[in-house]
Design a protein that fits this description.
The protein has 246 residues and is mainly alpha-helical. The chain contains 8 helices and 5 strands. It has a 3-stranded antiparallel beta sheet. The chain has a two-stranded antiparallel ribbon with strand order 1-2. Strand 4 and strand 5 form a beta hairpin. Helix 5 runs antiparallel to helix 6 and helix 6 packs antiparallel against helix 7. The longest helix has 18 residues. It starts with a helix and ends with a helix.
Length: 246
């Protein structure tokens, strides 16, 4: 099934290496001009090659990576590509997100052979995510109460909300920088973000809420629980435990 999915991507890849983000299910033709940022796809190609010896999609991945470097990395239009947000009507930079930046940074930082230029690109992506979306500390409201659990990471411009997965994935990117460079500050930032995940966690049942606002109408552990976000937290918590030898 995974190889069939990759085959579909290969068939729908544009000549310049990009991929349409939405296609007609019957024809496979793009329904608009929006292109996806293919970092998760590149990770999948890497996995089937390293884990299963399948190299059939290497050329597709190389073209996609070149497109990312020649386009997204030059424009830094790291637009959100969420299933509940339309893309075709977006203006450039209208809905930036940490997710696109962290996905590609994570892909680069986990390459077996990483060039100096690729490392610099990854560091710049993480710097962007931190600058735009990480809140190490927030001013209290007029009554002296915090509005959100901090440190936290907001998801996107159209959803300026602290999300557990965004926190975890940004921590993962900082861990990647530490592994590649030994930058102690990057490690401490990763630890601070993942410590926040443990503070948000329900100490009784272990559930990690998806959003972290201190608001009686929104701080609802049932309403704000997305399993995929929890999975991202679990993966990064385990990675930190391994990194620290715990």
């Amino acid at each position: 099934h995974a190889l069939n999915i990759l085959g579909t991507y290969r068939r729908t890849q544009n000549a310049d290496g990009s991929f349409p983000i939405k296609v007609d299910i019957a024809t496979g033709k793009a329904t608009d001009a929006a292109c996806c940022t293919p970092a998760p796809l590149l990770c999948l190609v890497e996995r089937v090659r390293t884990s299963y010896g399948v190299s059939d999609f290497d050329e597709m991945a190389a073209k996609a990576e070149k497109w990312m470097m020649d386009n997204t990395m030059k424009s830094f239009n790291l637009t959100g590509q969420f299933e509940d947000q339309r893309m075709e009507d977006l203006k450039p930079y209208q809905n930036l997100t940490n997710c696109t930046a962290n996905d590609f940074a994570d892909y680069l930082l986990n390459k077996n052979e990483l060039s100096d230029a690729e490392l610099a690109a990854a560091i710049e992506l993480v710097r962007f995510a931190e600058d735009q979306f990480v809140h190490w500390e927030l001013a209290a409201d007029e009554n002296g109460f915090g509005r959100e659990l901090t440190p936290c990471v907001h998801e996107q411009y159209f959803y300026e909300t602290p999300v557990d997965a965004s926190c975890a994935e940004t921590a993962g990117s900082f861990m990647g920088i530490y592994r590649r460079t030994g930058d102690r500050l990057a490690l401490e930032k990763a630890k601070a973000l993942l410590n926040a995940v443990t503070r948000a966690q329900n100490i009784t049942n272990g559930q990690i809420p998806t959003t972290w606002e201190f608001n009686s109408g929104q701080w609802d552990y049932n309403r704000t629980f997305w399993p995929n976000c929890t999975y991202a937290c679990v993966v990064r918590l385990l990675a930190m435990a391994e990194l620290l030898g715990e």
